[in-house]
Amino acid sequence: PPFAALICFEVSVANDEFLFEAPTREECEAWLSALDLTYQTCTNSSSFAPPQVCNATWFIDGKDYFAAVLEALRSAQETIFIADWFITPELYLSRDGVKSNDSRLDFVLLQQAERGVDIFVCCGTRPAWP
Asked: Is the four-CA dihedral 109, 115, 117, 119 of positive or negative sign?
């Protein structure tokens, strides 16, 4: 029937309010149970998504950072993705005072490409300087 009674409930989240309509009381109760279960299983960050493992590493200076980048590039087996605003292919990744092509970015990428590693480089545009 076009004017059948619907069971309604409202959910408020922050400054938003959502009105839900269910055709039967059972469906309404199922929705409320699912929402309640989601609320009860929230993490401390108030998210229903499961906590993620973060493998971030803090670097104090460029020497340790570039050494880690060099190691990661050399250990890549399938794909290397690089996104940068301004990339210098002649960048030496080893900061031990010896300039060797073994640690220069373009040569490392070439070696990996020759091994069959797919390499994708995305460069942004340079910012306009005043």
From this structure: positive
